[in-house]
Amino acid sequence: MRYKIIVGLILLLAGYASVLAQNNRMDCEQTLSLATEEFNAGRFYGIPALLKPCIDRGFGREQRQRAYLLLTQTYLILDDPISAETSYIEILRANPEFETDTALHAIDLVYLSKKFTADPIFSVFGGIGLNTSPVRVIHTINPWGSPISNNYTLRPGFQFRGGIDWNITRELALSGEFNLLNSSYRKSQTRANHDRVTYIGNQWWMVMPVSIRFSDTKGKYRPYGYGGFAVQWLVSETGRVTNIKTDEIDGGTPQSNTRESPTLRLTSFRNKINQSFFVGGGVRIKTGLDYVFADLRYSFGLTNVVVPTSTYGGQTPAIEFGHVDDYFRIDNLALSVGYVHPIYNPRKLKRARTKSVLKLINRSAK
User: Fold this and answer.
1) Is 362 within the bounds of a domain?
2) What domain range includes position 69?
3) pTM
């Protein structure tokens, strides 16, 4: 019973606080409307004092943008450039993507806006996804002395990724990532006597890609493309071998005997450091001030994954079950979805971008 009373009191207080906050926002909306009327009537001096109580305690983000926009215009008219600049910074803190428009705003406000930016210098992102790893054979290893037929088939894997973008310009960014990737592949070998050997390998990689990305910066859907280079560290490879041996018994009737290996550890027979280059693209979808993304990437392996001494004459755990590695590179096709958070940084520019506005002013004066 006591717990029910406590929970009830908490809910009652939360509801009361919500009602107070809503009433406060409504009161401040009325204050903002009154300040706008004062501005339109040419009574500028009382506007800062009128807005201050709600700025200190009551405005939501959208209301703060409108309030500081009104203050910036007021201070420009009152010839108070320092207060105008301070107010404009607050506009960008309320809405980092705010931009002036010559069709909507006074030219002096547009001119002031070119001295500031909130463009993010850095953005952080993370994602998850699925992948598959095509194998590209460099050299087929055949120690059996009879014809063989090899077939590599795709298997699914998954990956986690995270990283940071350094935004050189609005369109161009340098990206660094860390990926944890699980990949898999299957090798099926058929021999002249119809014996079949299948190996399924499962790999864990730590991948560190660096890339240059070019992005569209307008609209809700923003496509992008990129290319780069990655260093990959093979953490482990485990696999299983299935050997189906076909023998002929009396009368020529074939009989198959299946032998399966336990899980084998082949990491020590692999080159642990590998390199790749990759290309990719996708789309970022704007959600508020952040983005969700879908990304497709293809990585071209540059390194022979197999240690050469582990094939001819090598004693890997898989040889006992009839499996010998080819020399091969491994590619990767990955589809990821994730989230991007730009780290907005409202600031005054060291070099103002006012030339276009000055040209517009000079053109209007003629």
Assistant:
1) no
2) 2-119
3) 0.82
